Amino acid sequence: MRISDPKAIRALAHPLRLDLLELLTAAGPATAAHCGRVLEVSQASCSFHLRQLAKYGFVEDAGPGRDRRERAWQVPGPRREMRIAVDDSPDVGPALERIVVEREAQAILDHVGRRDAGSVNWRQKAGVMVTAVALLSADEAAELREQWKALLAPYVARTEKDSADRLPGQRHVRYFMAATPLPAFESGDSGHESEH
After folding, report:
1. pTM recorded for the entire structure
2. Which of 73, 98, 105, 153 is the most buried (most CB within 10 A)?
3. Considering just the CA atoms, what is the radius of gyration of the chain in Å?
4. Angle, to 10 degrees, between the axis of helix 15-27 and the axis of helix 93-113?
């Protein structure tokens, strides 16, 4: 799904709204009260932000919650990849990109700082991160991104299945890929002359 409407992009450009989308994607339908407990924010705040997400189709009403007094929310299915057309929205696109990157960086730092038995086990087996510098053209970088998405696709599809099908030891894991071109060091375009 390509999102180019600046108002819809602006609706996503809030850390709590991204947290709510992630929670509903991972856990399935939930009420604002449940979201508030999990995310440690007020129910009123969650309710407001869920309504804003619903206004642009990012979440939808999932009917009454377990207690039948409060509505549950869900991510519309089937889940599709969202592509934000940041170039079409120069005012709000970069702000959303910054929020997403800061949020992912904070999640990585939080994981690195955890020292409970579960996080140590995951760190030993799966590692925390992989870094590399590769020589690529823009087309090759796009191809690599598509290969990475294809590799993850069967695992991402598991999030759409009932949590009762989950095997022991499985949990939701965040993956974040960013390709950031380095300056053209050898081309002399940087404007800096060698001092040697």
Report:
1. 0.69
2. 73
3. 20
4. 60
Sequence-ordered strand ranges (E) for the chain: 2-3, 30-31, 60-64, 71-74, 83-84
With beta carbons less than 8 A apart as the criterion, state whether 37 and 23 touch: no
- Three-state SS sequence of the chain: CEECCHHHHHHHCCHHHHHHHHHHHHHCCEEHHHHHHHHCCCHHHHHHHHHHHHHCCCCEEEEECCCCCCEEEECCCCCCCCEECHHHCCCCHHHHHHHHHHHHHHHHHHHHHCCCHHHHHHHHHHCCCCCCCCCCCHHHHHHHHHHHHHHHHHHHHHHHCCHHHCCCCCCCCCCCCCCCCCCCHHHCCCCCCCCC
> In which band, very low, low, confident or very high, does the pLDDT at 88 lie, cut at 50, 70 and 90?
low
Of residues 99, 109, 93, the one with CA closest to residue 10: 93
Q: Report which of 14, 36, 191, 186 is spatially closest to residue 100, judged by C-alpha positions.
A: 14
**pLDDT tens readout for residues 22-53:** 899 888 899 999 999 999 999 999 999 999 99
Q: Is the dihedral of CA 30, 33, 36, 42 positive or negative?
A: positive
